[in-house]
Amino acid sequence: MANPVVQFQILSRDPEATAQFYSTVFDWKVDANNPLGYRRIDTGSPEGVQGGIWPAPPQAPVFTQLFIAVKDVQAAVEKAQGLGATLIIPPTTLPEGDEMAVLHDPMGMSFAVWRR
């Protein structure tokens, strides 16, 4: 199985202003109608990946995070940790049934592994 980037996420201290900015500049559609208040981004194109906007904790920097598809989230976490990654959010099943985990690579960049 290939491991493509399947989603991006923008962490923002002001998710509503961020959504307004990107939806205006790029004509993206942003939908916050879900139980977590996550703002889903529909870029309006079948090319590329879709994304979302999540509130950044006050102490965290703002950044963009990539979500990479894997067959086995736990195995990917263990492999990444063996190569020096730090686990931030352990494997978690989301309300729609997807599973994800968030890590920092050895250089400190945040990324997520994702199983649909």
Please give a structural write-up.
Helix content is 19%, strand content 41%. The protein has 116 residues and is an alpha+beta fold. Strands 2-3-4-1-5-8-7-6 form an eight-stranded mixed β-sheet. 21% of the residues are buried.
Q: Using the CA coordinates, give the radius of gyration.
A: 14 Å
Order of helices and strands: EHEEEEHEEE
Q: Which sheet architecture does the biggest sheet show?
A: 8 strands, mixed
- Look up the CATH topology of the largest domain: 2,3-Dihydroxybiphenyl 1,2-Dioxygenase, domain 1
Percentage of helical residues? 10-25%
**Mean pLDDT, nearest integer?**
92
Look at the structure and name the CATH superfamily of the largest domain: 2,3-Dihydroxybiphenyl 1,2-Dioxygenase, domain 1
Shape annotation:
globular
| Number of E-type strands | 8
Tally of alpha and pi helices: 2
- How many separate domains? 2
Summarize the structure.
The protein has 116 residues and is of the alpha+beta class. It contains two helices and eight strands, in the order βαββββαβββ.
Record keyword descriptors for this entry.
2 domains, 116 residues, 41% strand, 2,3-Dihydroxybiphenyl 1,2-Dioxygenase, domain 1, 2 helices, alpha+beta, eight-stranded mixed β-sheet, 8 strands
What's the helix and strand layout?
Blueprint: E1 5-12, H1 15-26, E2 29-31, E3 39-42, E4 50-55, E5 63-69, H2 73-82, E6 86-93, E7 99-104, E8 110-115
Parallel strand pairs: 1-4, 5-8
Antiparallel strand pairs: 1-5, 2-3, 3-4, 6-7, 7-8
